[in-house]
Amino acid sequence: LGAPRTKAEKQLAEFPDRCKEAGLRVTPQRLEVYRALVGTDEHPDAETLFGRVRERMPTVSLDTVYRTLASLEEHGLISRVEALGNRARFDANRDRHHHYVCRECGLVRDFYSEALNAFAPPRQVRGWGGVESVHVQLRGVCSECAKKRKGNRE
Ligand SMILES: [Zn+2]
Ligand SMILES: [Zn+2]
Prior knowledge:
Elements: H1 7-22, H2 28-38, H3 46-56, H4 62-74, E1 79-81, E2 89-91, E3 98-102, E4 108-111, H5 114-117, H6 123-128, E5 137-140, H7 143-153
Parallel strand pairs: 3-5
Antiparallel strand pairs: 1-2, 3-4
One zinc ion binds next to loops.
């Protein structure tokens, strides 16, 4: 197979070690759910991941995918994109990043910003407790949706 080439392949190759560190057993289900998630930057929901996992593992159930996502999240191997309506969306990007979210179609894009990473919390917040991370979510209407809107008007 040789050395892993892409970021996703590298993350996948590191998965067993990261499970071990987190005290989580590597099962075929966990591996396949993780593979489906690292292979995309779409921040898919559980149903979408279920469809992809099923291509490689036809016997898997949606319930198993839900439970697997929950345990991967609980052990810090993946994260959840917060506040996106009632459907949880998942993220395997471990690099420090922020999100752009389209409020019409639910598109989620990763972006990187040194300026946001260097953000200093207001003194008031520091009085409430320690700050461990800063995550900024920018919301708007994506250019695809804006184009559609314009098309509908014409
Ligand atoms: Zn959109
Ligand atoms: Zn992300």
